[in-house]
Design goal:
- The chain has a single domain, classed as TIM Barrel.
- Strands 1-2-3-4-5-6-7-8 form an eight-stranded parallel β-barrel, surrounded by four helices.
- It is built from seven helices and eight strands, in the order βαβαβαβαβαββαβα.
- The chain is globular and about 50 Å long.
Length: 219
């Protein structure tokens, strides 16, 4: 992972419509993650698919060799004081395969204490949706925190923290728009910062992901 400071992947890998298209017909479900990791180095683990325990994480790792690395979206509903120790153990179980943690703030009141506590151990990126006022307020308290960017404006959100993430919807994405997103990421490169590109959709477009990899090589 450390040889690549810009990593690209999809939001989730368990997409039924990928079977027979991206995943070969007959590929066992438990082999999907390893097959995915052969082509893409990063996957976002959505909050809705948060593993129940450390054993589930260990199964992910066994099923996928040494790729992909994971960007984990933290389910804030499961971050009460009684659950925090278990959630930390789940994150730690990913070991070097954990790129970082995304904290979704949209519609949730979060004090700087939670992101700050996570940033003591993990790379943290906060996601307040396209409206980032709450996120910017938290950033004032901790320069280690990064931001999620939704492809609007000049991408200055990518200049923050140890981890920043561009979240793009594959529907309607054309090569010119994709190039603009990737150029913003390249402009934000820093030896101390990791940058992630997450392609989203229902399902995320494998073709858009492949186009992005080609463009990154060319740029």
């Amino acid at each position: 992972m450390h040889a690549y400071r810009i990593l690209l992947g999809a939001a989730g890998w368990q997409h039924a419509s990928w079977q027979g298209d991206f995943y070969p017909d007959g590929l066992p479900e438990e082999w999907r993650l390893g097959f995915y990791g052969n082509e893409f180095r990063l996957v976002l683990l959505p909050a809705a698919e948060w593993p129940l325990d450390v054993a589930a994480v260990q199964q992910f790792l066994r099923n996928s060799g040494d790729s992909p690395v994971f960007l984990c979206e933290l389910p804030l509903a499961r971050c009460g004081s009684g659950a925090w120790a278990a959630n930390r153990q789940i994150l730690q179980a990913f070991g070097p395969r954990l790129l970082g943690v995304v904290i979704p703030l949209a519609g949730v009141a979060v004090t700087p204490a939670l992101p700050g506590a996570l940033a003591d151990t993990f790379r943290v990126c906060i996601d307040a949706g396209p409206a980032t006022q709450q996120a910017m307020e938290i950033l004032r308290h901790d320069e280690r925190l990064g931001l999620c960017w939704y492809g609007e404006g000049d991408g200055r959100e990518l200049q923050h923290g140890r981890l920043a993430c561009a979240r793009i919807r594959s529907a309607g994405m054309n090569p010119r728009g994709l190039r603009g997103v990737l150029e913003a990421l390249l402009a934000a490169q820093d030896p101390q910062r990791y940058l992630a590109v997450i392609v989203e959709g229902d399902p995320p477009s494998v073709e858009v992901m492949r186009q992005a990899l080609v463009l990154l090589d060319l740029l």
